[in-house]
Amino acid sequence: MSNRDGSAGRIGLGSHRRGRVVTAGGAMTGRSGVVRGAALRGGAVPGEPVAPAAADHTTRATGGLELALMIAVLPMFGQVFHYLIDVGPLYYLSKAWPFLTLPLAMHGAFRLSGRHHPLYAMVLGYVIGITPALSMIWLGNAFLDAFGTTVKVWPLTYYFSVLSLLVILRPHPDTLRRVLLAYGVVTFAMMWALWLLVPRTHYAVDPTQSKLFMYEVERGYRIYMPMVFGIMSLLYLVRRMTMSPRLIHVVLYLAGLATMVMIFKQRTSIMMLIVISGWVLYRNLPKLAGSVATVVLGVGLVAATVLVVLPAMDLVAAKFGNSLSIRMNSLTLAFDYMLADAWRWLFGVGSITRFSAVTLFDLFGTNHFYLADIGWVGIVFEYGVVGALLLLALYAVGLQNAYGRRARAPERRMRDPRTEAMVLALGDYVLFLLVISSVYSAVFTPGELAMVTALLIYVRGFWSTQAAMGPHAGGG
């Protein structure tokens, strides 16, 4: 609880620094803090009692402010608009968001204390400091070109900025659950609205014309909707099935999956979602049912491989068409270039931008070389084995905060099973990001991982935070 002098006590994210207690809210023992409870938020005089009516008013105002801020900023931290050139102002705002929220990130990095702060600081130092310098050596980048290649990794700072924002606002975990699920519903509703209302003439073959409405020979018309909140919602439904199975959970999940198959049509994402969902359901089966399922799955996989997969390999290759051949060509070029020097393997060679003086054609004789399409080989190419291991460690700490022994401790579990299901779904989403990184680059939208990890750390430590800092007025 709060100390008598009005300062917040130490909480789970806090640590002693130079003899002072630095809390996750930025307060130090003996002076005012950023967060001090409902009375100070409502403008009351410190140390004086708050009238019930005033407290109620503060509760409503604070809760509304939290909700509005969460609704406004979460899509930016989730990089929803980061590649959508179709929504001009939001697209540019998303590009600038890491720099606009840099004060929050600095507050989170230097005023808060967390077990994973050193790792994130090390990764940021490597990808923003060392890699650009190497690109100047290996690829001949100018300084500005080299710095320009770091734009895609700046969203890793969202780990600090999201954590800082959460600690300052202190939203109740159930408030976060409702906001995340609301965005999931909005995602699928917008997909159907756009699919039914937007004429086919608005769909583009050239991705430089549209990243939302696309037409491809292999997949036809499709909407490339950012699915971060949509997939989180589907994983939440899977977790709800394991806790309190209801038909509505199954129906909603199948409806969302069908929407992705019919409209989204991103094959790898859909396949990995099904795999993660099946893994979660399998892990939560009763012992006997799990044993039966293991035998059935084993027999089914062998039969499917012999009877379906092997005979259909040529058909699958033809179905993936040009995208598969481009990926294979990119893999060959990347391996050939890295094998020429052991130092390239170890520390990487960096990257170039489309505005760089050195072009992909100068390096490889082709413009069809995409690091983002060759998964961890592209990461090793750009950041080396050292950088790849550092980035893998970020996934590891995300999974640790979701599934680890510390995360499963009774005092860290949510009291509401619906909120606990959401927390577990966040962990499942980290696993989804890890699995899908085998195909898509881990730095394509790194802000997703940073945001989800910050959410997990905050929510898992919520009750200890409340005990240290006092009851929160805006609890949901």
Automatic annotation (TrEMBL):
Membrane-spanning intervals of the chain: 67-85, 91-112, 119-139, 151-168, 180-198, 221-238, 250-282, 288-310, 345-364, 376-400, 421-443
Keyword Calcium among record annotations: no
Keywords: Membrane, Transmembrane, Transmembrane helix
Ranges in a coiled coil: none
Transmembrane among keywords: yes
Domain of life of the native organism: Bacteria
Name under which the protein is recorded: Uncharacterized protein
Protein source organism: Tistrella bauzanensis
